[in-house]
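Thread: Newbie trying to understand structure tokens

Hi all, I'm a second-year student working on a class project, and my supervisor (Dr. K.) asked me to get a predicted structure for one chain before our next meeting. I've only ever worked with sequences, so writing a 3D structure as a token string is new to me. If someone could post the tokens and maybe explain what I'm looking at, I'd be very grateful. Here's the chain:
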Amino acid sequence: MRQIILVGLGGFVGSILRYLLSGWVQGLADSPTFGYGTLSVNVLGCLAIGLLGGWADNAGVLSPSMRLFLMLGLLGGFTTFSTFGYETMTLLRGRAMFGALMYVGLHLLLGFGAVALGYGLSTLKG
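---
Reply by user tm_fold:
Sure, no problem. This is what the structure looks like when written as tokens:
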């Protein structure tokens, strides 16, 4: 139960930070249609999970509880794209180039396909 609370609290904070930062960046942008806010959150989240994951893996500075709160909770609420980037990097560090390419390709293909399918289904007149 403690683990669930840690992830939930981190997710709560991360979601609020995502909302605030992406809204602020988008407000600075000249284009209301291009997702500058989402892009900034995704890139910042990837940088943060890379730093935290590297410190955790190489220096052992994060306890399992802090890792749950920060990496799964906070950054998971901030952006799941950071987790996607970290998992891809883990495959690459393990020299699983084919696995990494498959992972990225399947995310793009299935993710965009699912969005298109869901959008198409939502427009059906029943």
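A couple of things are worth pointing out once you decode it. The two ends are 43 Å apart (CA to CA). Helices lie at 2-28, 36-58, 64-78, 80-93, 97-122. Feel free to ask follow-ups in this thread.
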